[in-house]
Give the backbone structure.
Amino acid sequence: MASLNVKDLPRPAPKALAGAIEALAARFGNRLVTSQAVREQHAHTTTWLRRQPPDAVVMAQETKDIQDVVRICAKHRVPVIAFGTGTSLEGQVNAPAGGVCIDLRDMNRVLSVHAEDLDCVIEPGVTRKALNEYLRDQGLFFPIDPGADASIGGMASTRASGTNAVRYGTIRDNVLALKVVRGDGEIISTGTRARKSSAGYDLTHLFIGAEGTLGIISEITLKLRGIPETMAAAACSFATVEDACKATILAIQTGIPVARIELLNAAQVHACNLYSKLTLPETPLLLLEFHGTEAEVAAQSQSFAEIANDCDARGFEWTTRPEDRTRLWQARHDAYWAARALRPGTEALTSDVCVPISRLAECVVETERDLEAIGMASPIVGHVGDGNFHVLLFCDVNDADEIRRVEGFLDRLVRRALAMDGTCTGEHGIGQGKQKYLETELGPEAVAAMRALKAALDPQNIFNPGKIVPVD
Amino acid sequence: MASLNVKDLPRPAPKALAGAIEALAARFGNRLVTSQAVREQHAHTTTWLRRQPPDAVVMAQETKDIQDVVRICAKHRVPVIAFGTGTSLEGQVNAPAGGVCIDLRDMNRVLSVHAEDLDCVIEPGVTRKALNEYLRDQGLFFPIDPGADASIGGMASTRASGTNAVRYGTIRDNVLALKVVRGDGEIISTGTRARKSSAGYDLTHLFIGAEGTLGIISEITLKLRGIPETMAAAACSFATVEDACKATILAIQTGIPVARIELLNAAQVHACNLYSKLTLPETPLLLLEFHGTEAEVAAQSQSFAEIANDCDARGFEWTTRPEDRTRLWQARHDAYWAARALRPGTEALTSDVCVPISRLAECVVETERDLEAIGMASPIVGHVGDGNFHVLLFCDVNDADEIRRVEGFLDRLVRRALAMDGTCTGEHGIGQGKQKYLETELGPEAVAAMRALKAALDPQNIFNPGKIVPVD
């Protein structure tokens, strides 16, 4: 029952905690919040994991605030947990050892945009939608779209990706440099605005995906793209998941630069039909987006149509009209809420795995069979160009039997992906929920290396303790 | 004089070294080589740095060999230096503290190719040309091309890139996973064949660019691409470096997916004309390559021709015929030898920096002026789509005054790039030659973090000591 019942860890001595909170109150006044409701909110995650609220929340407004919180907490050896929008899925913002949450939502300034260099420098609380709003007039955009309007600091910390990754890469491929507040409150600068560098160890990529366990990101330099001249959407139904995956593999192999290619299984299409009042055939569906000049987009969709046809697609609908694009993609954007509406009142949790694309069909089909066997017709959506997919599960957390069935399923899902040379998480991260699989996936040597890195950069173990590789 | 006169570091105790070599001789027989000539060869770098040969060389044939060398050396606290093809440029294979070189050239097997997944698993001694030869029949290629036929283990270790990076990324973007032999001879596995993962700290990218200072890479999983249907080459002369850079910026901003876009300055074109018997106008030249379908390539080159015209280009020549492509690119491929032929008999060294593309013209023009001021009309070639360029310098190392002038120039080159928010090396690495700039570029906090990482993963300091961040 490890997934659901997260462990509490040893808390700071009451006197140490009181000392830290007193110092924080003196420094931050009413920007230090200790009310039950606010603490609970900051332990909220879109998961079934039990909430473990921090002892206090500081609303940070600038880098100096992060530095001071870290210095005060380090002095008293109290944990520090960074918080963006709380949309993480594996318990990344829980506080199993208590401590102080730094809420970064007000650090939401775009510090500079360099249009000629296609980059910008931002604070970590900027959300992806706010950034794209800001950039639109300059004809630029930031392509990473994990669905939720997450903060970019949070996306960097969980190594997020999403629907556009097949063309534009994950956040890992789109961060040029970071500033990170380390344990003594000083700032590590990991890079410059140069597009590439061979100068020393790759600190940028070490902090990306570290879930705030090695320091707090205070500034991010991002790569940007020019907004494509034309965007077209397409939808295509298939008789089987295998056919849909085969079409995906052929598209990737042929080198069609699809911007998005998303699989919805029959259960998800059913949920979307109900929720969004659509009449899509309730069979596996691929939703696609093409970006480029008008001619490029036409050529791409023509090439894909031929592939789809060879893979026995049932119709291929495509459009460049914005309103039709929106209509087609609405189902995908609402997929999570549509799925949740299938069984209101229960906890919903989503888990993700990622496998080499040649194994994807097999992995999805076996997963569907497994769902059938436990009596759950759960929706599956996949960023299939990357071999990454999500299962949304429902669980009545008062029903011990259902909990057991869901946990058994999650365990088999991960082991199935690992057996196919895949990973236990393509984009949600390890957090608390997937710690037990890290060693299964990479072996004890990799986990030992991760522990050594954690000890090297956070010797006091104050940064988000109990995540990724807990230190005893 | 730090660049030229590399420091010797404390060597292992003679008894320890003798013990290690005795154990290695017993294990490896005539695959352990201690002759002066072979040791000298393994300290050879294409640079002016003084050679610091290892005490012995082991010709490794399989992973077990690397493990055994590391175990024996660790037991006796003797340094271990990995060697691929010896084409590194900043003294990465020198042995300033002596020790044992592991020559990986015979670990050159392609272990598996997964065409559907566009990936392969190889040993570190496979060279990029050998790999592409191997893949060609399957319609696949590995796009990273640093010029030299380097080993892919070496390319991973120096975080190499080259002419194709503007479209396909650097080696960093094209490695999915590594196996790395750690200090006790056990193997760290950093990832799976999944296209993306959020599972724990990014060990893969920590070892990429670590120059063998954190462990020895024994296996590499690479991303591959389908060979494009059509490739076209183009050449375009400009009156000024500014015009050439302006055209480059516009091409990148417009989103033309150029596969290569290389700048040759007038001095380099002059060298190429002499060496390759060409009659190119001796003004700044852009060489381009376009990849895609026939229609895509035609559209890309048409778009670029319009941009070039707006930037006062003097003629735009393009072709899809293989023999014409070869002719156009021959000049670029021979650039290094053409440049060296300008002043035979002297040492030649090449240094690289990388700046945001908006500062590139300014940086190249100031560098050209600096070269004039020290009386050297040195060739410059640039991967200008990335803002990265190289200067080739000649130096009579018996002329103290010339050494001083060259060292002064190199210092100003790096400081100029850093002042423009660039990096002291885009793709050659830190090695020994650029250590003094790491702190100037990133600050003492980043260097302290790097030292902490080195101590965490190589507590005995046996892996390539004296490189990147020397430990006292």
User: Anything to note?
Assistant: The two ends of chain A are 20 Å apart (CA to CA).
